[in-house]
Amino acid sequence: MRILNGGLKSWERTGEKLTVKPVTYDPTQFNLREKGNEDIWIDKEELSSLIGNEDSNIIIVDSRSSEEYSGTLIKKGASKAGRIPNSIHIDWAEAIDLRNSKKFRPIEELQEIYNTLEMNLKDTVVVYCHTGYRSSLTTFVLRELMGFENVRNYDGSWVEWSYFDELPYEKDSIML
Predict the structure, then answer these.
(1) What DSSP assignment string belongs to 15-32?
(2) Is 129 a catalytic residue?
(3) For 32-36, 86-90, 96-100, which range has the lowest pLDDT when averaged over its residues?
(4) What pTM was estimated for this model as a whole?
(5) Beta strand residue intervals within 6-114, DSSP E
(6) Angle at 5 between CA 13 and CA 141, to 5 degrees
(7) Looking at the domain 36-162, which fold is it?
(8) Catalytic residue of the set 84, 90, 127, 129
């Protein structure tokens, strides 16, 4: 699998061509592993047990917008606003040059952004967002671009977590 850094617009800006002509490939044998790459994924049960374990020493990264993180915005699909306790907010979009090239920021800039987490390359990091989409990009950035070894994506993310009243959550208080 490959990621087209910057998307199709970036591809076109560099003068590369696109086609709608069908492509044919010679048949080949492809075997899926019995087990997937499960060290990159975490479910709510395991995350909940890690949160409840004082010895787990995990870092939880919320990659949603600041409004979602604070609990002032609830997106469709979630049953309540808030965040997973003790999570640290770093918006997924910080890793992308959204105004210009749409490409991943240079490693030096990524290091400045993610150094606020005060973690080392061997720490256990769990990333979540609203539905697992934005957190998968952050997981990719941390694992593949920055070299963190133990980053896991909680793909159930806030939509799943918010539906279970027995699971802890936080949100910022707003007094009127």
Answers:
(1) T-----S-----------
(2) yes
(3) 32-36
(4) 0.86
(5) 58-62, 88-89
(6) 155
(7) Oxidized Rhodanese; domain 1 (3.40.250)
(8) 129
